[in-house]
Structures are given as C-alpha cells and as structure tokens.
Amino acid sequence: MAGRCGDGEAASRQRSVENPFARVDWVGSVLLPAFLLFRGQPVLGWTRFLDLDVDKLRSPRRDALLISLAGPAVNLLLALAGIGAFHGLNAAGLLTSPLLVQVLPFFCLTNAGLAVFNLLPIPPLAASGAAEQLLGGDALSSFEDIKPFGFLLLLAGVYFNFFDFITIPLGRLVNTLLGF
Fold first, then answer.
1. What is d(CA 147, CA 126) in angstroms, rounded to the nearest whole number?
2. Could you say which residues of the chain have pLDDT below 70?
3. pTM
C-alpha cells in the first residue's frame, strides 16, 4: 500500500528478500512468541515496523490512513475467507478432520481479532500511524509522549483483561458466523 501511495522504496528498505532477518524485532519476533509457546498460549508476534517516508506520500494524511488500514483489511478478508472455507468444506462433507475443525475456527478468530485489535490507535499497532497524521497540536504532542510506552500499555491491557470488551463480543460473532 505504501508503494501505491507514493513511497515506492518502502518495501525495498525493509522487506528485502535477500535478508529476511532485516524485519526481525527481537521482542516481538523471538522473545514474546517463545514466552507464549513456553506458557502453552497461542503464539502471536510482530516484525519491525515499516519505515515510511511521509514526504514521498502523495497525500500524507489520507495515505497514512490507507496504509494503516491495509493490514487490518487483509486480516478481515482472511477471517471471512476462513469462514467461507469452513462452511464450504462442511457443506461438501469434507470437514471430517478434527484438526481442521479446530484450526479453521482458530484461524478465523485470530485474523478477526488482529483486524480489530490493530485498529486501536495505540503505538505500535497499525492505527497509530494514522492517528499520528490525523492529530495536531497538543493532542499530537501527548500522543508522542506516550508512544515509547505503547508496548507497555498493550501488555498491561492484556494482563488486566482490558481488551475483553473487544475479544469477547468478537469471539461470539465469529463463533456465530461459523455456526457454533
């Protein structure tokens, strides 16, 4: 999306095929997934964020919003495709594998959760890039002040179940769409 909005070099700066480790974030790509795996929890993580050259974007405010929405839009499409695959396989009588019956709903729920979760304007989530472009004055200054602590805010939110107001209804919606 960054390339379509004018920053054609964004992908080449950090998503080089020659060096897949250029995008590794040691906390999000190694430590957190290892910790979650050790605890028997679903493994989630992230890579280093794509550095945008805002000066190269045709319309920085609009384009930052589009770039921020690209990831959640793909997650939403993947969740919907998974729901469609689940119903299609079930209708064709091909949903006989217990592993598939577990994996497809988890795939749908994970992608739906990522789509909604990444729309929260908390650094380092996707929507924080759009928030930066849309805020101004004191609001932008305050946002910049909390930016270094965004990851800690997210961890605290997860630890204290703050995000249950999102995850519980979303889980119910996905389960309803799957027919559970």
1. 13
2. 2-3, 6-20, 42-43, 49-52
3. 0.76
